[in-house]
Write a structure and sequence with these properties.
Subcellular location (chain A): Cytoplasm
Largest sheet of chain B: 5 strands, parallel
Low-confidence stretches of chain B: 91-108
Oligomer: heterodimer
Subunit structure (chain A): Forms a ring-shaped head-to-tail homodimer around DNA.
Number of domains of chain A: 3
CATH class of the largest domain in chain A: Alpha Beta
Number of domains of chain B: 4
Pfam families (chain A): DNA_pol3_beta, DNA_pol3_beta_2, DNA_pol3_beta_3
InterPro entries (chain A): DNA_clamp_sf, DNA_polIII_beta, DNA_polIII_beta_C, DNA_polIII_beta_cen, DNA_polIII_beta_N
Largest interface: A-B, 26 and 18 residues
Radius of gyration of chain B: 31 Å
CATH superfamily of the largest domain in chain B: P-loop containing nucleotide triphosphate hydrolases
Strand content of chain B: 5-15%
Distance between the termini of chain B: 42 Å
Number of helices of chain B: 20
Shape of chain A: elongated
Number of strands of chain A: 26
Keywords (chain A): Cytoplasm, DNA replication, DNA-binding, DNA-directed DNA polymerase, Nucleotidyltransferase, Transferase
Chain lengths: 366, 450
Amino acid sequence: MIISIEKKKFSEAVHTVSRFAERRSTTLPALSSILIIAGDEGIKMRATNLETGVDLKLEGDCTTKGAVAIPATILQQIASSLAPEGKITIEHAGDTISITSGNSKSVIKTVPYDDFPSIPFPENPKNRVVLPGVLLRTLFTFIAPCASSSAVRPELSSIYLSIEGGVLTAAATDSFRLAEKKVPLSNKGSQGKFLIPAKNALDIAQALPDDDIIMSFDEHQCAFVGDGGMFVSRLTNATYPDYRQIIPKESVVEAVMLRKDFESALKRTTIFSDTFQKVKMSFDPKKNLFSLFARNIDIGESSEAIMARISGSPLDLSFNHRYLATILSLTPAESLSLTAAGIGRPLIIKGVGDTSLMYLVSPMNQ
Amino acid sequence: MDKGNPRELWEYMLTQVELSISPANFNTWFRNSFIVRIGEDGVVYLGVPSQFFKDWYLKKFHALLLKIVRDVSYEFRNIEYLIVKDEHRKIPRENRNIRGALELPLDEFYINKSDNLNPRYTFDTFVIGSFNELAYAAAQATLERPGITYNPLFVYGDTGRGKTHLVQAVGNQFKKQYPGRKVFYLTSEKFVIDYTDSVQAGTANRFKDKYRHYDLLIMDDVQFLSKKERSEEELFHLFNALHDTNKQIVFSSDRPPVAIPDIAERLKGRLASGMTVDIGEPDSESRMAIVRRKASSHGVLLSDEVVEYVATSMNGSIRELEGMVNSIICHAQVKGLSPDIAEVRQSLRSFTRPQKNISVKNVVDKVAEYYGIDEESIYEKTRRREVVRPRQVIMYILREDFSISYPTIGTKLGGRDHTTVIHSCEKIKREVVVNNELAKEIQNIRTLLV
């Protein structure tokens, strides 16, 4: 195999692909490698860790065809050390490849590529959705942090995606808080739902291109195909809890305030939160004051009052401040609306004017 | 292995797969898979974690796995791969103990500490034939009225005839019939050790008391008491003490009491004073019954052909017979099938000894060759010294090793009288003891003859 690629393209591709290679070294060597294929379809790079997989197309000149697997970490280190201009030539001979760029030449031992698994495409991709990659990327990166990081309940460490009536809904919860985001789709016809592991979604999101991609899925597998290549992930085979049930329909009190007021008040109050990271929230409809209070017996206490438009009856609730802070990264809206349904019931936070997002936090015991 | 049990089948398949692929491959691809179920139509449904696995199994391991299950049984027609739900992937482990029962029948080695009896030896597992009928009847009679009917009961017979089984069965049955009474089983060797230990420790009195409070004392292999005078005396006193209080005593030995060498006369008399029964050589029907019983107790059914082959190809010790059956059972359990006659023949090759059928002429040839004389001269009436000695050696070997009768030896070696043969044999037998040179010569000739 002899190929030559522009250095910049090569580096970008290696960075994208190596994310999908297995990071643990204990398993099959082929899994922690990048497979470079030069064939009729051009130059391709592949990697998989059996959870996710990538098949990326590269622009370049292919002199001789062939396939070779190289340890991902080595390739990544080389790629990050390359100067951006010029081309590199990769030549495969025996059980080594040589990478030549300008005056430098590195020879790397290859890994047997017979063991390299095939990247599975959904068997019957009946469900196909075309959407801009950038949309899916923001969706995944926003929602994924709300999923549970523990593997005990696979459904909770996944993102729930459902397509219905031309709207793509993504939801993630770790049973303490829940984030749901809706995006409209251009084609209204298709519908379906699936659970993608949040970790895989993040990996894929970071590699997705900005332009339109085709998202297809079946029962066990999903794929995101763009011009540049294909990304696949296994799906979680579990039933997602019916989270709509826990969303309170009625409300006791509603407060609307400026985002920057809330942000700075929360930031200061957080300093005084105790070991349980507890922050108390009070709604005072008479004075139109929304206040945050925290007390730590070792440090002291702090209370912050914010002017807000409050309608309803007075209410005190306590929350984990980390869960409150999450909303700030979820919505860019200038004002926030907080809706409480009573003591012990979850609080709904939305961005004013941002109907796509709904964030729900369960209160702590008083 | 139970081929209908998905987990056992999968574990068997894993062991086979592990041999064929690299450890890294094995760990990557086979860790999280298992057999979901085995379909009625012979399709094995294999649960895998994701599409990656399914594709790769189909591409790389399908042929291998199919070959393995086909080797287990032709009932398995195909393998299909299912992607299983994450929460179902953890296989239930609660039925682990079932496997333990199959792995090692540890109870076979279990011995009750308080009475030294092995619960495996019971009358239920004792095969009765014409050869041991009398001994069995005597044992039963003893159990009817212990200490009175036959006291002591003395069972003798060659090694591996089931003496130990019989006397232990008496002990186990006694325990069942008379729950309050005490039984103790020991070998004479244990008795000697116990005695010497107690003398060393200065607790001889405790030793005496220890054995005197048993209602049934079973002593195996009393012939080993010969030349142990102090122990014999101790046994003599113990015997008197038990016998006088009508406590039952059971002995076993490989020879009758009178034939036990170097044992005090007064003890000999006492050993023979009750009931003395022998266990003969089992006839072929009994042997077949034993083989069948042993195999079925392990849950293996052997065909009549196999049973007959096993029973006839080995004569003598029942212990060796059981060894053969065990080896067949082991083969059967590993393969999961009842073995056929060809396999049995193959697996028992190591057990069967070469038949000792050898012609007189062959022996004469070998001996004459060894001594460097003309073989014709052996048959002649010459009394030359260099011929006489080899001729005597031939007679001795024919008699000792091949058990040919004296008259036959005489006729075969040039029509000699049987008394001549007897004299020669006796002479060599005497000389072998004192003459090392001759002993070595005979040893060399024996190796030539094998």
